[in-house]
Sequence to fold (217 residues):
Amino acid sequence: MANFDFENQYWWGGKEVVVGLDEAGRGPIAGPLVIGICVFPPFYDNYEINDSKQLSDKKRRELLEIIKRDAIYYNYEIISIEEVDQYNIYAATQLGMERAVKRMQMTVEAILTDAMPLPHIDSNIPVEAIIKGDCKSVTIAAASIIAKVTRDDIMIEYDKQYPHYNFKQNKGYCTAEHVKLLKENGITPIHRKTYEPVASMIKKDEQMTLDDILKVS
Fold:
C-alpha cells in the first residue's frame, strides 16, 4: 500500500513542494503517452490513493476528484505518438516528466518518480527514482491516477474517430482482438510505427509496394 514515507522525509526537512510523477501508456501500440504530476500539501493524509493499476475504473475516477480537490497542484503532459516513435518510450517518458516539471509555476523542492531518473532537471533539486514508486508513494500513485484516467479518456475519444479498433475497451494495448482488428482494417495515424506488430506490417506494405514497382518496371 502506498504511503507518505518518501514525502515525509522532505516535509519534516522543511521542503513543501514535493512533486510526484508517473506515466500511463508505455506499453500500448496505439495512442499517446500521458504523464501525470501531483503535489499535495505538507503532511497531507489520504491512504485510499493507490497505484492506478490496483484500482477499478470507477475508483480511479472517484479518487481523481479527491486529488483535484486536495492537491495544491496537479496536471498532465501528453507526449504524442510521433514523439514516442522518434525518441523511444524510455526517452519520451523522461522528456514528458521533465516538461511537466518545467511547466510548473512553483518552486519545486523535491521530485519523486516511478523509477525514472531526470538528468536534465536542476541538480539542486533532489530526484528520487523509486522502483515500484506508484505502489510506495501516495503522490506518485496520485500522478498515476491522473495519467491513467486522462489517457483512458483520450482513447475513448479516439474510439469515436476509429470505431473499428475497439479503443474504448483495449485502450490501444496489444490484445489479441486489437491485433486481429489491426490486420483486418489496417494501421491508423494513432498506431505507434516503431512498435510490433505495426512496424512489421509497415515493412511488409513497403516491400509489397517496392515489389509492385519492380514488376511494372
Q: What stands out?
A: The first helix runs from residue 5 to 11.
